[in-house]
Amino acid sequence: MLARRIIPCLDVKEGRTVKGVNFEHLRDAGDIAELAERYSREGADELVFLDITASHDRRATARDWVTRVAEVTRVPFTVGGGITSARDVEELLRRGADKVSINSAALDDASLVNRLARSFGSQCVVVAIDARVEGDAWRVYRQGGRVATSRELFEWASEVTDRGAGEILFTSMDHDGTRRGFALEAIARLATTLPVPVIASGGAGAVEHFRDVFVDGKADAALAAGIFHFGQITIPALKAYLAREHVTVRL
Question: Which entry of 45, 51, 130, 220 is annotated as an active-site residue?
Fold first, then answer.
């Protein structure tokens, strides 16, 4: 069995790492490069950086901090936020990113997924999907969770996978920042029906939640932010716990 991945997520706003609850009430969590270096040293498998206001502000992801991160980390990292073209991707890869994450731009023009997959390979293209339960369905949101769309989670995930996405990063907006556990049923449905890896995001608050998302949620990777940034859980302790629970991780 492939090792499950632990991925700290750094939400970026104005050059700093921030964290909120349900995509709101942001507070400062530290310097981007300092956190990246720490997580790399502690054994994170990958890192994800999301410029959470880039799409809303209609601007590209800031470039300078990407270079700083590449200089201090030894693990692969993904950058997202405001990416709308192959030129944006070329610039981020040149500065050291290993993958890119697209969200609002794909919702604007789904063919962007096809173009990026052809140009850079599916392994480089992560489609991030932010969704929350509305009635009996999971509604997809854009612009950092600010604007509802007509898209439904499972249909949209299937479409972008068919178009060439190499991974799906699913964040449950209902669970984000609550530390009550992941949206296991939705994650398991994605993981068992899609032909690509699924990264689970939203709700991590205890080591048991990671076990649950790998065992019951069938996720390939689990992403978390606040519990790592503010020291509630350390990556070495988490991986040691998962190994004791017979979840395969890289130690």
Answer: 130
